[in-house]
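Render this sequence as a predicted structure.
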Amino acid sequence: MAKIVLGIGTSHGPMLSTPPEQWGQRVEADKANSRLFFRGKTHTFDQLAELRKSEGLAGRVSTEMWREQHAACQAAIKELAKVFADARPDVAVIAGNDQMELFTAANIPTFAVYCGETILNYDRKPDPARAPGIDVALRGRVPEGGAEYRCETGLARHLLKSSMLEGFDVAALKEFPADVRTIPHAYGFVYRQIMSDKVVPSVPVFTNAFYPPNQPTANRCRQFGRVIAHAIESWDNDLRVAVIASGGLSHFVIDEEIDRVVLDGVLSGNLDGVEDLPESIFQSGTSEIKNWIPVMGTMSELGMAGTVVDYIPCYRSEAGTGNAMGFVYWTGDR
């Protein structure tokens, strides 16, 4: 039977693949966003700046600090890449989300598994409508000239069947849409940064983190992680498997209190605190924590020990906009 030998949780935000001197590009988009989510409510940029004035966030925004934080993030990514290489997995199951990269408003499944033969990772078409600071990060998730990777279809189909038997109706993605040649950035980041372009066969697993009305609850994500654990370890194949979460932590507005609850769950294996967070917290970018929860559920089910490599809240404005970066892994017994 297959064996899970490693779990990883990593942020994947564009700031990680952007020179720190350019982190301020995204502030233009922050200021234009009239629905910045923070603790269950929406705010304008100016409202948030006033609300969080007492936190002194303006003092945490400078090119010098951005350089230090960028270096710390790169060191953490390098550490995760080493952990991945040292574990020597044969296959990876990657939990991420789609942001209208594969799906459209016409069809957004709550959970989905890609089970086609080939995973495409080519440049997206230039789009002047994309927010500043997005395209500059392209090389962090798509190699020069693009790439094609092998999907482990046997495990993908086994995961789909096992999920059905345990009460999860999961969508099966058998091919990319005709006009799409790029796996969502949540997965491209893992292939490039964690696998260092030495890509093992993988199974992309999708959670609808972003889009109402069919976002799964934190509890449902945790239970799906238990299903993933059971499916992998019942797969009749003598292979080593890594399970990787890509996304988060809190953004586009940073909330360090929420992130600490998640990281405490990684270390303790107890996800009750995460499940107790109100669903109103899991909106906008912070909803990507729901990419982590299935993997946390998998690791908790197996009793694997969590390690926090680093946590770096990368603020880019006095309103608290930015991306809190988290880097963790699980190995061995707790």
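Summary. The chain has one domain: 3-333. Residues 124 and 254 are 28 Å apart (CA to CA).
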